[in-house]
Amino acid sequence: MPPDWIRPDWPAPANVRARVTTRAGGVSKPPYDSLNPAAHVGDAPEDVAENRRILRAGLPAEPLWLTQVHGVAVADADHDAPGVEADAALARSPGRVCAVLTADCLPVLFCDQSGTVVAAAHAGWRGLAAGVLEATVRAMAVTPSHVLVWLGPAIGPEAFEVGEEVRQAFIEQNPLAAVAFRPALPGTLDEAPRKWLADLYVLARVRLAALGVEQVHGGGECTYTDAARFYSYRRDGRTGRMAALVWLE
């Protein structure tokens, strides 16, 4: 049985392929049920291996599985070894699969208009604020206006509650980021909100626009509220991960 793929809806060149898994179609047992490809979350190693085998059957090669640390390093899927510490990967050679794992953080897929380079980035709020999207676009080494982006499933703006320090981390870098935050509870005239609801999709779009990336697609699927389809760390704690994958044919 093939995985329950999400196929990104974006105007990518014909030689660009991209997929995102849901939690369906694998062998892992609760609370990792069922298609968990992450080896670092406490799932049975034999189940993770079988889930990766299931994924591999629909891919041209084994993905470059990263050791993700909420940073900005960009791995080279053409040359780097599995387990490299990075939160993004790019490839220029056909058949090299870039992959990131998420369960509330935002998976971001990239390609250029000419189909010469693809990339995937893991963008939680820390990675976004640190500049993982900017690092990925720089590593692609193409004109930003020629970059196409697709935003995958992430925790939505009705569920992602953060503190003032998170809001300030973004606004200090770009005041336009203020549009991505609204008070979690109605405040009073003399008291600032202590908690905010943050929109990862808007934060990503603001940062990409500042780079000159104009073609941004996707967004809007909430991992927290859709327990049937998606893993969510904030909702469940012990849980699996989805894989976002992109490659050149």
Give an overview of the whole structure.
There is one protein chain. The chain has six helices and 13 strands. The chain has one domain: CNF1/YfiH-like putative cysteine hydrolases, CATH 3.60.140.10. The strands form three sheets. It has a six-stranded mixed β-sheet with strand order 3-4-7-6-8-12. It has a four-stranded antiparallel β-sheet with strand order 1-2-13-5, with no helix packed on it. A three-stranded antiparallel β-sheet has the order 9-11-10. It is 20% helix and 24% strand. The two termini are 23 Å apart. The protein is globular. The protein has 249 residues and is of the alpha+beta class. β6 and β7 form a beta hairpin.
In brief, what are we looking at here?
The protein has 249 residues and is of the alpha+beta class. It has helices spanning 45-56, 125-130, 132-140, 164-171, 200-211, 233-236; strands spanning 5-6, 16-21, 74-76, 88-91, 98-102, 106-112, 118-123, 147-151, 161-163, 181-183, 195-198, 215-218, 242-248.
Any chance you could write out the topology, listing elements then pairs?
Elements: E1 5-6, E2 16-21, H1 45-56, E3 74-76, E4 88-91, E5 98-102, E6 106-112, E7 118-123, H2 125-130, H3 132-140, E8 147-151, E9 161-163, H4 164-171, E10 181-183, E11 195-198, H5 200-211, E12 215-218, H6 233-236, E13 242-248
Parallel strand pairs: 3-4, 8-12
Antiparallel strand pairs: 1-2, 2-13, 4-7, 5-13, 6-7, 6-8, 9-11, 10-11
